[in-house]
Amino acid sequence: MKRSHLPKAIRLAIVGIFCLGMATSCGTKTTNAEILNSLNETAAPAEMPVIEAELTDAPLVPAPITRKHPAKVVVRLEVTEVVKKLADGVDYTFWTFGGSVPGKFIRVRQNDEVEFHLMNHPDSKNPHNIDLHAVTGPGGGAAATFTAPGQETVFNFKAINPGLYVYHCATAPVGMHIANGMYGLIMVEPEEGMEPVDKEYYVMQGDFYTKGAFGAPGLQPFDMEKALDEKPSYVVFNGSVGSMTGDNAITAKVGDKVRLFVGNGGPNLVSSFHVIGEIFDNVYVEGGSNVNKNVQTTLVPAGGSAITEFKVDVPGNYVLVDHSIFRTFNKGALGMLKVEGPDNLAIFSGQTEQKIYLPEGSVVQEMPKSNAPKAAIANNKDMRLELGKTLYAQNCQACHQAEGQGIKGAFPPLAKSDYLNADVDRSIGVVAHGLEGQIKVNGEVYNSTMPKLKLSDEEIANVMTYVLNSWSNKGGEVTPEQVKKAKDKYKH
Ligand SMILES: [Cu+2]
Fold first, then answer.
1. Distance, CA 17 to ligand 1 centroid (Å)?
2. Which positions make up the signal peptide (predicted)?
3. Which end of the chain is more exposed for a tag (fewer CB within 10 A), N or C?
């Protein structure tokens, strides 16, 4: 079985990073020795039937499972980084599980043994991994699947608990990987199976953070500051504005029972999921086994799910929304279920007025400029070092690590970095503008992406002074004036 080229210790370190960010998903019950053992676990017994999993793109889901016995299910999921439409005239570089957002829908049966292959396309710029909430075990598989571009990793798990589960990338910086679209759903059907219905669909919400405001045209880069502030420019179903409207609307016939597998990738927002003009007959709350009856709006947490079921009695257009309603009419969270068939005047009669539910479209509303508090100003080197230390922990540590040691193959070291020490101005340029493409640090090649961070000249001066005076680097002081010059010199 092929594994990550990284030593186990490093894969464990990745889980460590992830645990700092998202403590809830991290196993505290296991020791490192146990984690290592689980990494070596072998496949299912030979007598089990082996099935290649059917994987689907939203809004479709794989066929319900009719098997009455467990099987060994092989899942092959490929990560790609692709430019796709986020809205009309707006493109975005999505990081995907299987080519689109949300990732492929996976469907297995309780007590199936899953052999999970994660491939990372050779053209990817970043390493990725996967944490499936359906997994019982450390990191949900994150440590076992840390995968560099052009690599494939494999791990096995037993789907013990039935339910609808989110999966997502958990590579640092976790928030950025999720914000770029790295999430999807896996349904673990209960042993007794699921009640048959007429239509099943896959709907997953996500919030997106672009440099430009909603509707600003062109290829839009990720905006870290908006993500930290939890102020998305877009909130959408299935990866783009209009993914489920017009010709893309999902459909049903009068009398059909409809089941929606609803997920929320976040990274930040909680969804108040609602279908205008319908009442959910059943909601499997949070994707678990309890059923609530007769529900109008159901909460779908970030990193959570719900299964909603309803019978459609009356023809017309039913609008799927996040009832935090500005998101629907001003940020894109709007889908449509078209129901065709004969009227049922006993249930609904009268003029059907649709206009009020059309999206307000490209009406971009200008937000007042925020008066962000001014950062503290350092007037000597000691103060710069102190402020820089905090800035480093907040802005750099997730990737370059606490001691500046980096992570081999993914994030270059800042400690004793020949690249950094050879040309401080060039490194200031990296911090100011971000960096993409191949560089060599201490003999190792890195070909990855450092995002542009929104730091002021003062902040860059402080963090660079801290970096230069840490971990045996060459020392010195960087001033805001030097930053200003270096920024212009290394503009690209
Ligand atoms: Cu990722």
1. 14
2. 1-23
3. C
Structural contact between residues 129 and 142, judged by C-beta atoms closer than 8 angstroms: yes
Place of tokens 């799910």: 305
pLDDT tens per residue, range 249-302: 999 999 999 999 999 999 999 999 999 999 999 999 999 999 999 999 999 999
Distance 376 CA to ligand 1 centre (A): 34
**Could you tell me the sign of the dihedral formed by the alpha carbons of 306, 310, 312, 318, in that order?**
negative
Domain 47-344+353-365 in CATH 3.40.50.1220:
no
Structure-token match 């809830």, residue found: 24
Average pLDDT over residues 352-373: 44
* Cβ-based burial of 262 (10 A; exposed 0-12, middle 13-18, buried ≥19): buried
Domain 381-490: give its CATH code.
Answer: 1.10.760.10
**Ranges of CATH 2.60.40.420 domains, the chain:** 47-344+353-365
What does the pLDDT read at residue 227? 95
Q: Are strands 199-208 and 163-168 parallel, antiparallel or unpaired?
A: unpaired
pLDDT, tens digit, 9 for 90 and up, residues 104-159: 999 999 999 999 999 999 999 899 999 999 999 989 999 899 999 999 999 999 99
Cα gap 263→180, rounded to integer Å: 16
Q: Does the pLDDT value for residue 356 go beyond 60?
A: no
Contacts of 235 (CB under 8 A, 6+ apart): 205, 206, 207, 208, 269, 322, 327, 331, 332, 333
Q: How far is the CA of 274 from the centre of ligand 1 (A)?
A: 30
In angstroms, the first-to-last Cα distance of the chain is: 43
Q: How far is the CA of 82 from the centre of ligand 1 (A)?
A: 13
The 10s digit of each residue's pLDDT in 156-190 is 999 999 999 999 999 999 999 999 999 999 999 99
Residues of the chain with CATH 1.10.760.10: 381-490
Q: How far is the CA of 296 from the centre of ligand 1 (A)?
A: 35
- Residue ranges for the known binding site are 128, 133, 168-169, 177, 182, 323
Instruction: Give the Å distance between the CA of 379 and the centre of ligand 1.
Output: 40
Residue list for the binding site for Cu cation: 128, 133, 168-169, 177, 182, 323
